[in-house]
Amino acid sequence: FLNGKMDLFQAEAVSQLIDARSNADLEMAGRHTRGRARTLVYTIQSKLDHLLMRLEAELDFPDDMPELPEEELRSGLDSIASELERLGRSFSSTARGRQGARVVITGAPNAGKSTLFNALVGHERALVTSEAGTTRDYLEEELVLGGQAVVLVDTAGIRQADGQAEIEGIRRSVEQMENADLLIRVFDQSLNGRAIADGMADVASPETNLLVMNKADTEPGESHDIPELMRHEFHRLSAVTGDGLDGLIAEIIDRVSDSLPSIEQEDLWLTSVRQRDGIAQSAAQLREAVPLVGDVPEEILAGLLGHALELLEETTGERHDEDMLDRIFSDFCIGK
Asked: Sign of dihedral through CA atoms 42, 48, 51, 56?
């Protein structure tokens, strides 16, 4: 960076490349290291620089330079601010993609949710006993499935509870369900079909609900041929033996891929809070200037545009000081 071989977007991307947890992270960091951000931001920057130069030239040589039409200045600033705001909004998509889709396992007590959670995680993360209501709080674990980051969440069984601890656990479970990208609803095959159907009363759209009939290694309960169950498609598996688990994982990968925005949908995704804030502050400066065109002296407008340009230069690293670089590079791990 100090030798001018990288801008700050590219330098930060080196750290992001090292910390990448999924294929999407790698692709995004790769775009930044190849200068994709620099090209796009510099294009916007040059438009702003051109408007500022025309405005300053008019101020310096009022008799020789044609006057910049107010409507042209106003529309130019509005267009640049919109481009910057679009970039700023992309950060939320980036953060969501890097954090991973939230896949929440839910169901009645003793349906085998925690056993399934452990099977997907690959180790004994959740406590499993034959006693119903063992899980009192949610557990979460970060995974990579099919190259996609996933946050897998195990929740307390949903039932009418008496104890304060279990009531609070169920409340938190409902909260996790409401924030899920995908719900895996687990049912116990050994139960009566009517009881299972009753437990499916609140199953919403199939796009956000994946139905699992667990304990396929046990005998099915009675009345599994009732219409309420027959019209639904279940993944039948045994979380204990692992039978049917690969099919469930494949389905999770498909659903998760659909729930997260594709990198191809955006020209660029900002990848740090620093980038987002710099872009947002520059856009806000231009938004402040737009309604002032024609109402304030051009010197004031030139000052606002110049400040917006400085904010962009700080974002790319063209303008920097030692303290700013220390803050940015303090997150890098230097190998021995």
From this structure: negative
Yes or no: say if 185 and 106 are a contact pair by the CB < 8 Å rule. Answer: yes
The letter for the amino acid at 274 is: R
Residue 80, H or E segment: helix 70-99
Tens of pLDDT along 7-28? 888 888 888 888 777 777 777 7
- Give the integer Cα–Cα distance in Å for 208 and 33: 35
DSSP state of 111: S
Query: CA 61 to CA 102: how far, in whole Å?
Result: 59
- pTM for the model stands at 0.62
21 by Cβ neighbours in 10 Å (0-12 / 13-18 / 19+) ranks as middle
CA distance 135 to 9: 44
Strand 182-188 to strand 148-154: parallel, antiparallel, or no bridges (unpaired)? unpaired
Listed in sequence order, the residues at least 6 apart from 54 whose beta carbon sits closer than 8 Å to its beta carbon are 65, 68
Q: In what order do the strands lie in the sheet with 101-107?
A: 139-145, 148-154, 101-107, 182-188, 209-214, 235-236
Q: 141-195, pLDDT tens digit by residue?
A: 888 887 777 888 988 766 555 656 656 666 777 777 778 888 898 988 888 877 7
* Region of residue 117 (left: phi > 0; alpha: psi -120 to 50; beta: else): alpha
The secondary element (H helix, E strand) that includes residue 171 is: helix 164-178
